[in-house]
Amino acid sequence: MAAYSKLDKEIFDEFGEQKQILKEIASNVKKVINNPDFIKLNIISAEEAHYSAKEGKILYQLHRYKERNATLVNKKKKQYFKRHGNLACELCQFDFYAVYGEVGKGFAECHHKVPLYSLNTETTTHLDDLMIICSNCHRMVHRGWSLD
Question: Hey, what long-range contacts does 101-109 have (CB within 8 A, 24 or more apart)?
Answer without folding.
Answer: 106/77, 108/77, 108/80, 108/132, 108/133, 108/134, 109/133, 109/134, 109/135, 109/138
